[in-house]
Amino acid sequence: MSIILRAPARASAPELLLRPWRDGDRDALLAAYQDPVLLRWTRFHVTSAADADRWLAQRRQGWSDGTSFSFAVLEADAEAGERLVANVVLKQVTPGRPDAEVGYWTAAPARGRGVAGRALDAVSRWAFDRFGDTGLTRLELLHQVDNPASCRVAEKTGFRFQEVLPARPPFPRDGHRHVRRADQG
């Protein structure tokens, strides 16, 4: 599937291009996972070429079976062309089910610049447009309570805080559930 989403440029930030992950993204994926902050918040750690190949294969499988849609988020770089700045995923998509989940991570050089929120908004709008006719009316974003940056991204992107969730494996701490509804825009 060749879906391409865009988050428009802003005065202080270039346009973001969101597309399905490709095998050619392996090196950029490995570089992003050199960041200890990213490793702290993700369950699957990409620390070798074999890990990256498995991770990319899982992303392709999600697109193929229609249950998970991961987007590589790219930003134009004057010197290097496009560079990977984030990942956003729509998962647990099931026709007839009213809710699905979104998740994301941001590469270290892109943090604090609004990349996550812009990319998350683009995927959320696409999800409601694409799957609204099959019953999708609500997206959930989950994060651990000790991740205030994710709380800020959720709130800035229209995901309202709903509740504290008790810790459960593989997550060692309580979490927050944020929700964005289709009728919120």
What features would you describe in this structure?
Helices cover 30% and strands 31% of the residues. It has 185 residues and is of the alpha+beta class. Strand 1 and strand 2 (16-20) form a beta hairpin. Helix 1 (26-32) crosses helix 3. The chain is globular and about 40 Å long. The model has no long low-confidence stretch (mean pLDDT 92).
Please outline what is shown here.
With 185 residues, the chain is an alpha+beta fold. The protein has 5 helices and 8 strands; from the N terminus they run ββαααβββαβαββ.
Between the first and last Cα atoms, what is the distance in angstroms?
25 Å
Which class do the helix and strand fractions yield? alpha+beta
Number of helices: 5
Overall pLDDT confidence: 92
**How helix-rich are the residues, as a percent range?**
25-40%
Largest sheet: 8 strands, mixed
What string, H for helix and E for strand, traces the elements in order? Answer: EEHHHEEEHEHEE
Rounded to an integer, what's the Rg over CA atoms? 16 Å
Count of individual beta strands: 8
Low-confidence stretches: none
Major beta sheet, strand line-up: 1-2-3-4-5-6-8-7
Tell me the fraction of residues in β-strands, as a range: 25-35%
Structural shape: globular
